[in-house]
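Exercise 7. Predict the joint structure of the components listed below.
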Amino acid sequence: MREALQRGLREALDGNPNVYLMGEDIGAYGGAYAITAGFIDEYGPERIRDVPISENTFVGAAIGSAIGGLRPIVEFMSISFSLLAFDQMINIGAAIRYMSGGQFKVPIVIRAPTGSGIQLAATHSHAFENWLASVPGFRVVAPTTPYDALGLLRSALAEDNPVIMAEHVSLYGRRGEVPDDRYTVPIGKADVKLAGSDITLVAFAHGVVTAFEVADKLKERGIAAEVIDLRSLRPLDMDTILKSIAKTNRVALIDDNWRTGGMMAEVSAQISEQGFDLLDGPVARVGGDDVPAPYSRPLEQLVIPDSDRVIQAIQKTYGI
Amino acid sequence: MITEVTMPSMGADMTEGAVARWLKKEGDAVKRGEILAEIETDKAVVEMEAYGSGVLRKIVVTEGKKVRVGELIAYIGDPSDALPAAAGKPRAEPAATKPEAPRPAAPSAARAPETARQPEAPAAAERPASADDGDRIKASPVAKKLAEQHGVDLATVTGTGPGGRITRDDVEAAAKSGSRPASAPAAAPAPAPAPALAASGETVQLTSMRQAIARVTVRSKTQIPHFYVTAAVDMTEAMKVRKQLNDALEPEKIRVSVNDFVIRAAVVALKKYPKFNSFFEGDKLVGHAQINIGIAIALEAGLIVPAVLGCQSKSLKEIAVSARALGEKARSGKLTQEELTGATFSTSNLGMFDVDQFVAIIVPPQSGILAVGRVTKTPVVKNDQIVIAEILKATVSVDHRVADGAEAAVFLGEVKKALENPISLLV
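Solution:
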């Protein structure tokens, strides 16, 4: 996935002189996750801008430059640090187009490594994409595959609204086919990653990996699971989910992140609002434990739901 | 005193039943032992006696509505006593508190003849005093929607989901097996003739009995993996013995039929291979001390398979007498519920229609059925000579969950051996 993102960023930099990158340690250091390794040599410090530890300031600057006609791509070291920039992101970035009656557009892409699983402890393992997905004015995407990462980045760079791209830290090394052509993946469209008829599994980012493990285990028992990758958290593609549940009548929602008020709480609520008559039982929702991310590897793995936990929830809910 | 009348269990595998007809109205005086209602099971319509005396205070379950065994269907009691608060609302049993099918470990032995007269026995004790969620039928949204589309009454469906929830699959199964409220109000105790199609293109309403036959056979063929083994049996000796026997029994006006020989031979084989006299129950086989041989009887209204009870200790002559009596009771609608539902293994005979051989459908929860055709003179090779023998073709249908082909072959071989050495049937 790292290479797919690099390809997308290079295309943007090559194709549009108004595109520039900004973030902490993205220049000489090459980025906390080495996404921009070597970029500073290719594009120079004007376009690959290292910034001090001052999130609210540099995000504010980026938003201002976007309003002024540039196309900034901002990288947070961690979505945990986005907390410091919520004022600029939400009060200005998400609202100014509306408040100005459409006079100002904010064509900015904010890339944010998110999630846990690589022992970065409580202050560097947050996943706030669900919070951001509750903000009108934002587009929020969370790719699982290299293909989707590149396709969504291309779509994000064609958007006139702020797009948050939540990149799960455990997926950067994930491999997958990426065609050579200039395809795009539309924002706001979920993807049926595996077709099945007996139960719908809805997940995003690393949760999709878990969903595939669940599907494999269910298959051994003759149960065909359908795996839906949300890809976009805002707008949320409920049509694809409901269409699937109409077929399977059962649904399990998988979320690595804190369960309470998590992304799947919203999905679950909308299913009950729009798909009540399709259901053969309550929604089975599996989320991460409501604790600060542990540093200890065994403990960290324990709080992230694995396939067995999902299967238990499915058995408890549907008796299958 | 108010007595609860609950849906009686009319057989080991009965889980639900419907009141085909109430013979008393609310307010009518009822004496203990009087016929209160006719209960329709999957297999037959059986009369239910009143357990207590008093007044039929309230009918809780209307005619045609299916309810689970043990569920409240009416109240009998003194006119002055107050009915319980929940009276009038049929309750769905919370499945978690109630075994799915109350089935004694050895059904035939444990089933007392008065089962029908102890309506309050099993369920009343198990029902929670305050049936909090008992008033509500728990069904998933999609199950409710499907039930509406298929016209399935959810009160007649047993939920298999967590907490007894009725699921999509439960409704689909019910729709498939035609588990709907019987719209025909009642079948007479002595079954009425099945309506005949007067002209092609006409549609007729099936009787409760025909609907029951449909349900049982579909259940059998969809749940029991049948397989069939056929053998030709040389009945030459048996036919001679039969003639001698009938001549001897002439003064007693007893006639032993070929079918009686077949039943007796089946009993001999079942004693040796008791597996075929057991019921398959998920992860176990439940064997029976008694051998009750069901006999398929074609009535005008449809097929029934009542049993000659206790065949393990009956002689050929006793079997002949019992089988004849059974046929007469079947035709006059006087079968007891034990005879109707107590068979542990069955036989079917189409020999009188000049059929050579056929295969029969197992009657659940039994494990096998023996189907025989006519006895016919056939050229056979014996000691390299072509001779004429009286040949009967016997086909046993077996539940593959219970026994394999080789075992069925050995079992059928035992039937054949017994019939070909008829003296063994006389001892």
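Discussion. Chain A touches chain B at residues 249, 276-281, 316-319 (CB under 8 Å).
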